[in-house]
Structures
1.
Amino acid sequence: MAKLEAKDQSSKIKVQRSKVLNIVGARPNFMKIAPIQREMLRRSDEFLPLIVHTGQHYDAAMSESFFADLGIPEPDHHLEIGSASHAVQTARIMIAFEQVVLKEKPDWVLVVGDVNSTIACALVCSKLGVKVAHVEAGLRSGDMSMPEEVNRLLTDRISDLLLTPSMDGDENLKREGVAESKIKFVGNVMIDSLFFSLERSKNSNVLEELNLTNKEYAVTTLHRPSNVDKRETFAGILNALREISAKIPVIFPAHPRTKARILEFGFDDLIKNSDIKLIEPLGYLDFLRLYSGSRLVLTDSGGLQEETTALGIPCLTLRENTERPITIELGTNQLVGVDPGTIKKSALEILENPDTAAAKIPPLWDGKTAERICDALLDAKK
Ligand code: UD1
């Protein structure tokens, strides 16, 4: 009996591990959660991590392929929300996620980035009194017309632990009056996935399939509503890309939203009569192989600004602002806006000057951020 009791005692000690719901919803979430889930599983005496997929993104190319490429386990809960207006999508996620939280009773819910799934899940927890950790906290573009800026601000305001990718995040949060004890600079977790996958991405034959030579092509991605939903803005960007493609082929994996607009606006002919190559969205490893071998990237993505900085690849950001200023200060990023003349001029300058100054990798973008995130969660428990 005594023996049994002793055994019970020791298993009780083991049960003290933190149960964490790791939330994914949209494409840019998968590469951030993958290293965190892996690290928590490695430290399974300290963590019990579960994956919750809201289903905000659902096409195989936008979701499933990332689970496979990044080795993320099957979701423990799949909410299957899908596309809808912002209000409907956010509300549906909240209704479904509340049931998961009530059932699982987690110690922590961990949300990443700035998509609708991020704020929806954080808000559910704040109402239920469950602790939320926000990875990629503190980033600010200052542009409240971006849905992501609203999502970031609100998520940070209601999170218990704010895990920042760069020191500008800490400064923004302090300026907003957040208690310093809640803020922890951990570095950029997306770069964990990048370094983890770089070697494996070399097995991809995407360059051969697209008939490309290393460093002799450019890559573009566009999906911001402000760029692709307005006919004139999108036409201007495409015209700049057409002119750039006269110098170097431009590979354009198109997001479903972007593809829909190209058809709606009748831009497919514009693209066909150029050296812009429109392709389907790629999986994580193929896309990593593609941009890591490129001469230049032109994008409105947040993540790609960081990934190109980590690899020292010139990047032109086709936006008027960025929430990732460190990629400009230290990295390879330039903010060029959406004026076609400026885009073309900046691209040609890069193509004509192969010896641009070496960029620096920002502090703590070292592939070990997931470890620091786990440590921070345990510290916050003390
Ligand atoms: C979302 C994020 C954005 C992120 C982007 C990455 C918000 C507010 N926006 O934008 O921050 O940079 O993901 O991709 O959360 N669609 C499909 N299949 C899919 C997913 C979407 O066809 O698997 C189409 C649908 O027509 C949908 C549209 O894309 O209505 C937009 O999807 P949504 O998730 O609302 O926003 P994104 O533009 O993808």
2.
Amino acid sequence: ESNFLYEIMGKADSCPAPTKPNLNWHLINHSKADHDLRHLIVDLSRACKYISYAIQTTEAGLAGTKNEFGEDQLALDVLADNLIREFLCESGLVCCYISEEQPDIVELDPEGQYSVVFDPLDGSSLVDANFAIGSIFGIYKDGNVIGATPREQVAAMYVLYGPRTLLVVSLGNGKGVHEFILNDVGEFVLLRDHLGIGDDAKNYSPGNLRAITTNPGYKKAIDSWQEEEKTLRYSGCMVADIHHILSKGQGVFSNIGGGEGSKYPDGKLRHVFECGPFAFLAEEAGGAASDGTMAILDKEITSVDQRTQIIIGSKNDVESVASLVS
Ligand code: AHM
Ligand code: MG
């Protein structure tokens, strides 16, 4: 391993590879990230350290609750949104952002070269149950996210706040998907590099299951997963459920729409800040992400709150479910 690290560093012996490569080191030496992009990713990771700490130290997660001094407490998702905004402002690198917590695009620094899309705290309804939750980010060059496709992202990343806090990031272009763990001194250090997704899923993770009563194709997909005796792994947090796939190297996650009159005709998940970043990571890891008819990465972003169906994970399973639900 140390030879590999020396090779990618290409530096003199006087500057040995670190025993524990951290996120910043890895972005410089492995991903060869552009200076500003690296700073932006590191700034986002810093915001997530505060979010991670807030989750561990806040007693309640719900809006309108009071702390032990009788002061109003912010809901954790609002707190996470504020924290990320602060770090984006500090970076000076971001012209605008789209957040699940904001109804419209938010303009920041007109000189900024990047746009960031994010769900500050995905699965926040699970906070009180003490389930894992996460933050999702996609980064675009320039300000025109509406009208773009998720393939135009220059990086995607998520942070999973579970028993341990993990960060998974990719700059695409064959540079791979890499996993870091938050250590006791507050540094994200490399845990596993080059996460991959195999072609066949043993695990399945079916979201918006309420749709099977009105969508016979989705019902067929679920039936076939059960007949194939796949293993169910579903927590209700997209970050945790898709991390399970990247972590185990196989699996399929779906969130499919219901028929006419149903609650979520296009599925529950948002294209820009939930599906887009995960599609970028899944394809980079050798998996696939489809809305049933086309690759999520090629689907145009038409509005901030656009929803899309998604089937993501092991290629062969994504394909077979897509043929049933499209
Ligand atoms: P949220 O962003 O309001 O937390 O909702 C998104 C979450 C995803 O993490 C998860 O995959 C989905 O909602 C769960 O939906 P369902 O209740 O249909 O299983
Ligand atoms: Mg969400």
3.
Amino acid sequence: MTKALNEQIKLEGTASFIYLSMASWCDTQGLEGCAAFMHRQSAEEREHMLRIFHYLSEVDAHALVPAIKQPTDKWKSVQVMLKEVYEHEKKVTASINNLLDIARSENDYNTENFLQWYINEQREEENLMRSILDKVNLIGEGPMSLYYIDKEISAVNKAEEKAETAGGEE
Ligand code: OFO
């Protein structure tokens, strides 16, 4: 179980770095709303990583700092980039489900309980990314599309921020 949780630490850390790189690329494209959103996502993934880190210490296991390779620093388009975020979230969900299988097979009730938070979080994240992609599809590829996508994502980001300040999910 400890080994699998350490692998999850690496996956969350990798997501954090990929999203940070996306934030930086968005900035270079003048997509400020997207950059702010990806910075938030990156910070959230770091939180997800640390949550496991602290959990392992709490159950007297050894949490390991992962080696994370440098992520890509360019995307073909912001639409491609957002699709990649969604695909990455699906990968994380599959990995969380796998952790739950391991916890159950080892009768590790503490870890099973701990993972419930991640199950909810992944459902929310996938849902969020799906709704963003739906909007991006609706906006289409017209000349003003980047402007509208950026505006839309900026609004999503502000709504998320507000929900968090009001004591909602991270
Ligand atoms: Fe932590 O993977 Fe996204 O939310």
